[in-house]
Design brief:
With about 190 residues, this protein is mainly beta. The chain contains two helices and eleven strands, in the order βββββββββαβαβ. The longest helix is centred in the last third of the chain and has 6 residues.
């Protein structure tokens, strides 16, 4: 039996999903970092999370984009310590700062398996625009309940919003989010009887 992070296991292995794994519980998620963003450096960015098909959205703290190494393009980080200094061990710490939790309100076999919608928004004065978004299925999380998954996820290029055709030309690599997520069932589905 293995508890904790699955980073040391085969990252491509996901146990098969069975409909009985869909149950009431809590989805924990956070975006740690982003690379190859289709926006300019010094943009004020915020991640907005929602658990579809349920209503409600939760906003992250703001982060500012910056010009990263040439192979990373425009980047943003939400995994910095509160003092703002770069801390390479912050991503590996047990600190759950920035993790949001959303309830999967399962109530019958007809309840759909939820998806996590992650939207990245840029704020300027009173206006807000969507930079990019992605949808992640909760099936892999439900097939390994209680285990935090950490992966670089590729944003579909069609979901990236560019300020101009010039920005689109510059952006040759797909936008990436480093996402950490876990599904925590509310109860054990052991037979009572």
């Amino acid at each position: 039996e293995h508890n904790g992070s699955i980073d040391d296991l085969d990252p491509d292995y996901v146990p098969p999903f069975h409909h009985s794994m869909n149950c009431h519980g809590v989805v924990h998620v956070r975006v740690l970092r982003a690379q190859h963003l289709p926006c300019s450096a010094d943009s004020s960015l915020q991640v907005i999370y929602s658990l579809q098909p349920w209503n409600g959205r939760i906003r992250s703290k703001r982060a500012f984009s910056y010009k990263g190494p040439s192979e990373a393009g425009i980047c943003a980080r939400w995994d910095r310590p509160k003092d703002g200094k770069d801390n390479k061990i912050a991503i590996d710490s047990d600190d759950m700062d920035g993790t949001i939790s959303m309830v999967h309100a399962y109530n019958s076999e007809e309840t759909p398996v939820p998806n996590i919608l992650i939207q990245l928004k840029e704020s300027a004065l009173m206006f807000e625009r969507e930079v990019c978004s992605m949808i992640l299925s909760c099936k892999p999380l439900m097939s390994q309940p209680g285990v935090f998954h950490r992966r670089w996820c590729v944003v579909d290029g069609k979901k990236a919003k560019y300020n101009s055709s010039e920005d689109r030309e510059k952006e040759k690599k797909s936008t990436l989010f480093l996402v950490e997520a876990c599904f925590e069932p509310s109860h054990n589905d052991e037979d009572s009887g």
